[in-house]
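Please, structure for the following, as C-alpha cells.
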Amino acid sequence: MTRHDRPDVFFMCDREWDLLDEVFAPVYSPSTGVGVDFLGLADDTPAEVGQSFLEVGTGTGVIAVLAALAGAERVVALDISPKAVHNAELNAGRHLVADRVRVLHSDLFDRLGPGERFDTIFWSSNYVLAPEGYEYGSLHECAYVDAGYRTHQRFLAEAPDRLTPGGRALLHFSSRGDLTALRRIAAECGRELRTVDSVEVLEGEYGSDLVEHLLLEVLPAGR
C-alpha cells in the first residue's frame, strides 16, 4: 500500500488501468492475471462467464471490466473499500463499459437486491488465514488476509443462493491459504469444492516461492 514505486496507471491485457492509493495493486501480485486466465478473459473473444457476472472484491475492477468487454451484459462488482469502488468505476469509464458495470460498496453480498442472481460469481479471495482475533490495520489488509476465514465461510454459505439456474460460484484460492480448513468449512456449510483449474506460479515479487493457484467451484454437498 505504501510502496514509493506504486504507479498511477498500469498495463495489463494490452490495456491501461488506473490505480488509486490504498487499492490492491495487480502489478505486485500475479493473482489478478491468474484470475483473468482462469475465466478466459485474456482477450476480447467471448468468454464463458454468462450474461450476468458478479465479482466479489473487485479492487481496480480489471476482471469486472474484462467480463463486460467479453460479452457479459450485466456486471456487478463489489468491494468493501470505498477507494476500490471508485477505482473500479474509473476503469469501467476508461474502457467504455460503465453502462454495463455497476460497482457497489458492499461487504460480500450485503448491498445486492434480494432477487439478484448471476450466471457466474467470482471471488479472488484473501486466502491467507489470519488468527480469529486478528485486528485489521487498514481495509487494504482485507485484500490479503481473512481472520478465522469468516469471510470465506460467508461466501461458501451465501454464494450458491445468488446463482441463476445452472450458474457457477467460483473461488480463486492458492496454496498460500489453508485448503484443509477451507474444505472443512465448506462441509459445515453443506457445500463441497470441485477443482476446475490450477496453475503453479513463481511469485518473485516477495521471494521465489512456487505457489499453486486453484479455481474452485462451490457446489451443494452431494451434487
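The first helix runs from residue 31 to 38. The mean pLDDT is 94.
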